[in-house]
Write a structure and sequence with these properties.
Blueprint lengths: L3 H9 L3 E7 L5 H8 L3 E8 L2 H13 L6 E5 L15 E7 L1 H15 L3 E6 L3 H10 L2 E11 L2 E10 L6 H6 L11 H18 L6 H18 L2
Parallel strand pairs: 1-2, 1-4, 2-3, 4-5
Antiparallel strand pairs: 5-7, 6-7
């Protein structure tokens, strides 16, 4: 049984002959992509050999061994394991700073692949990194899993110039009505209110700006 976040990531994946999940952990996303025929083959990569053992076990249990390539490597270095260019690459479950480092260091190894990206903290850094490597966000989705909100991006090569507000809040989240959006905004506003109250005036300028923007977006949603 896969959770909502993994299912959403799979929905964003482009069908392709070769996909790659960087930081695959237990291999649940590759298992789903292979079983559903979304990817013909998958590179399952992780920096932890222990995590790869769990992924091997899960993929073996589903008789998918012949379609999986296991690589213990740092970030996009795993893409060197095969000569073929991947059609789609996912990177999830890391912080924004780690994701940015991986993206900036290994952007050339993507060779134009579609990116599925999700970071669990320092979210604006994820958007910034995509912009820096010449990728543009084409889809941006929000999900709630076990009391925690996750933002997922689908990005392809292309020019993107985000404003400060777009870097902080996103570009696509507000395009459609989403049942998760309202509670997300309220949670984020509550966090920022506490952060601003506990910080000196000059130390929380970005947080105060984001809070102002979020309140405006919330008001607009409630008035629909």
């Amino acid at each position: 049984m896969i959770d909502q976040r993994i299912r959403m990531a799979a929905d964003l994946y482009d069908p392709c002959s070769l996909g790659a999940d960087i930081g695959c952990d237990h291999g649940l996303l590759p298992c789903h992509l292979l079983r559903q025929g979304i990817c013909d083959r998958m590179i399952c990569a992780d920096l932890s050999e222990k995590a790869l053992q769990h992924a091997r076990s899960n993929i073996h249990m589903r008789d998918l061994d012949s379609r999986a390539i296991f690589v213990c490597a740092d970030g996009f270095d795993a893409l060197r394991a095969v000569p073929d260019a991947p059609g789609c690459v996912s990177l999830m479950g890391v912080g924004g700073r780690v994701a940015r480092n991986i993206l900036l260091k290994g952007a050339d190894l993507l060779r134009g692949a579609t990116l599925i990206l999700s970071v669990h903290r320092d979210v604006p850094l994820g958007r910034q990194a995509l912009q820096e490597i010449g990728y543009q966000i084409c889809e941006e989705r929000l999900c709630l899993e076990n009391g925690r909100f996750y933002i997922l991006w689908k990005a392809r090569p292309g020019s993107m110039q985000l404003t400060q507000e777009e870097m902080l809040l996103g570009t696509k989240l507000f395009d459609e009505d989403d049942a998760v959006l309202l509670p997300y905004l309220r949670r984020r506003i509550s966090i920022l209110e506490k952060q601003c109250a506990a910080s000196p005036e000059n130390d929380a300028d970005t947080a105060r700006f984001e809070l102002q923007c979020l309140r405006s977006r919330l008001g607009a949603l409630l008035s629909r």
